[in-house]
Amino acid sequence: MQKMIPALTDRQRYWLEQIQACEASGKSIAEYATEHGGNVRAMYSGKKILVNKGVLPAIQPTRFQRVQLLMKTGRRSRGGYVHWEVPKKAPPKWARLFD
User: Fold this and answer.
1) pLDDT of residue 16
2) Is residue 51 within 8 Å of 58, Cβ to Cβ?
3) Mean per-residue pLDDT pooled into runs of 10, the chain (99 residues)
4) Are the beta carbons of 69 and 81 closer than 8 angstroms?
5) Are 84 and 99 in contact (CB under 8 A)?
6) Which residues partner with 8 through β-bridges?
7) Which DSSP helix (H) or strand (E) runs through 96?
8) CA distance 16 to 91
9) Residue 70 β-bridge partners
10) What is the Cα 35 distance to its own chain's centre?
């Protein structure tokens, strides 16, 4: 059985195409809109309308940042310590967590 898609205005179709292209690129909406000269707030607004109409799913899968956990032992610590290696592409706020 095929899912029924509600009638969309030209503007809603435009936002659906933009959001699908954004998802295909693997970038966040903010990154995609900025890169393509779009308005970030307008894109989020367009997505919200499409979610409310049932055209797009309400929940997106959680994105995770890959980290590598290495266990080491040292003189100063009886139980050893944990060393985190954060990828170079990690957001700056992540780097502060591991200083």
Assistant:
1) 94
2) yes
3) 72 94 93 93 94 84 63 50 58 55
4) no
5) no
6) none
7) helix 92-97
8) 28
9) 83
10) 15
Q: List, as one string, the DSSP characters of 7-53.
A: P--HHHHHHHHHHHHHHHHT--HHHHHHHTT--HHHHHHHHHHHHHT
Length of the chain: 99
- Cα-based torsion angle of the residue sequence 41, 43, 49, 55 in order, rounded to the nearest 10 degrees: -160
DSSP 8-state class, residue 54:
T
The pair of three-digit structure tokens given for residue 19, joined into one six-digit string: 């959001």
Q: What amino acid occupies position 43?
A: M
Phi/psi-derived region of residue 76, left when phi > 0, alpha when psi is between -120 and 50, beta in every other case: alpha
Q: Which amino acid is at 73?
A: T
How many angstroms separate the Cα of 78 from the Cα of each of 43, 72, 73, 82, 99? Answer: 52, 11, 8, 12, 21
- What DSSP state is assigned to residue 93? H
